[in-house]
């Protein structure tokens, strides 16, 4: 019996392109003191971290 034909390589799945201003979920390891600093003012601490990083990235 003839050998089975090798399977064609499937194309890699495409990652969806993020919309401008869209956020991406990540896991980030930071010092506990840094986390406490941003959490001390309550809800919105993730936004405050994002704003601080955005300011540094655009400097």
Task: Describe it.
Helices cover 36% and strands 0% of the residues. The chain is mainly α. The protein has a domain at 29-59. The N and C termini lie far apart (67 Å).
Structure characteristics:
elongated, mainly alpha, 59 residues
- Given as residue ranges, the uncertain stretches (5+ residues, pLDDT < 50) are none
**Proportion of residues in extended strands:** under 5%
Q: Kindly, what is the distance between the CA atoms of the first and last residues, rounded to a whole number of angstroms?
A: 67 Å
Rg on CA atoms, Å:
22 Å
**In total, how many beta strands?**
0
Sketch the major β-sheet: none
Task: Give the class from helix and strand content and strand pairing.
Answer: mainly alpha
Please tell me what the overall shape is: elongated
Report the helical percentage: 25-40%
- H-E string: HH
Number of helices: 2
User: Kindly state the mean pLDDT as a whole number?
Assistant: 87
